[in-house]
Amino acid sequence: MGCRSNTCRMASACFDMCVHNFLVKNLDVEEETCVDRCAFIYFKVHQEISGEMHQVKEMNELRKEINMVFQDPYSSLDP
Q: What is d(CA 73, CA 57) in angstroms, rounded to the nearest whole number?
């Protein structure tokens, strides 16, 4: 069963990249630091991408409105 949520994908990616010692129950300091950095970067990038996608969506909505005005320029003048 694969990960579908962003949190699950982040946990899986960070675990695979950072955790190497399976002989002990707890993470060592290096692994903990790696997981912290990985999670921080993952969420920061996700936040930036979400912001960009929101801007693209707003631009597309604006383009649709502009296209409607150019298709029938007089309809926007009706009260």
A: 24
pTM over 0.85: no
- Write phi, then psi, for 57 (nearest 5 degrees): -60, -45
Residue-wise DSSP of 4-65: -SHHHHHHHHHHHHH----SSSS--HHHHHHHHHHHHHHHHHHHHHHHHHHHHHHHHHHHHH
10-44: pLDDT as tens digits: 999 999 999 998 999 999 999 999 999 999 999 99
Q: Which amino acid is at 11?
A: A
